[in-house]
Automatic annotation (TrEMBL):
PANTHER family: ACYL-COA DEHYDROGENASE, ACYL-COA DEHYDROGENASE FADE28. Residues 229-358 form the Acyl-CoA dehydrogenase/oxidase C-terminal domain. It comes from the Bacteria. GO terms for molecular function: acyl-CoA dehydrogenase activity; flavin adenine dinucleotide binding. Its EC number is 1.3.99.-. Its cofactor is FAD. Pfam families: Acyl-CoA_dh_1, Acyl-CoA_dh_M, Acyl-CoA_dh_N. Residues 6-119 form the Acyl-CoA dehydrogenase/oxidase N-terminal domain. This is Acyl-CoA dehydrogenase. The lineage of its organism: Bacteria, Pseudomonadati, Myxococcota, Polyangia, Nannocystales.
Amino acid sequence: MDFDLNEDQQLLAKTVADFCKTRSPVSRFRELRDADGRGWDAATWQQMGELGWLGVAFPEDVGGLEACFIEVALILEQLGKSLVPEPYLASVVLGGYALALAGDPAQRERWLAPMVEGETSLALAWAEAGARFDPTRVSCTATPSAGGFVLSGAKRFVLNGHAADQLIVSAMTPDGLALFVVDADAPKLTRTSLGLIDGQRGAHLQLEGVAVEADRRLAAAPAAEVLGRVLDYGAAGAVAEGLGVASAMLDLTTEYLGTREQFGVKIGSFQALQHRAVDMFIEVALLRSMSMEAMVRADEPGPERSAAVSAAKHQLGIGGQFVSRQSVQLHGGIGVTDEHDIGLYFKRMQALSTICGDATHHAQRYASAAGESVPISPAS
């Protein structure tokens, strides 16, 4: 398998990196986090659409570039390095892929094309209380009615659910699981905005008899199959963004070790701290290699995709968390303050490690595919 990036991919990564450094440094994330409202900027989102980043993997008939998930992962890695708050993972990877895979041409033109242009944003509402990363454990119902369906139930921790223009909601119909597009201002839909651990925002949804037309059901492919693929895309995307976060934390920490003085010398000269920095480097390198395989396999059908994604997501949960903890500890007291950027990266790593399945979930999924068993424990 060739992991070398081609010339176009290298140029894309550099373009996104330059954009993040000049237009969206970490200080911008802090400003938007502390301001009231959505937590991200609509003008920046539209600019990302104009640059083609929001549609890089989608068909040309909706304004996309028909690339593959590798390009999506390259964008996410650079966004992670600067903690860019715009909802790329939530809207493009989760919401966008759900529409691309389950929607017919008319539905994609109606709801996916505006998102690709940066005019709207999406959210995928799939998680429910007690579901434990299983998208098929759904208690939300869709009851047939004259000309459509009536949705009732609750969805939890919907990424970008507070700001999305359209919500893609999973619900159980009499003939099985289905996906529906619900407008954010639909009557009898309640969105409760949430402040998440990483400073970004999401929402709990309450649907109390929300009426939708029949053409809002996404039925071009089986919903359970679509959700399985979309959550693999989401997990692989979280790994790619987490790689950017871990790389930034490693850079910040090695820079700090080379400048902070104690006992009259740079603390980076202490052998014990050098060993810990090397351990961090090894974990980042391992995360990079596993992220690369996951982004290459993400578009493939079958168990190879799921195995690669689960292995990478487990590494994010174990190795990525190791890097984040070491970074805070090696920074000392300043590392646990909100004023230092390392704490912001630490919190984002906690969120990414859980999005679309934590380390234990993916270890069990990987082992199950191999016919083995993994006990549920913190060491999993």
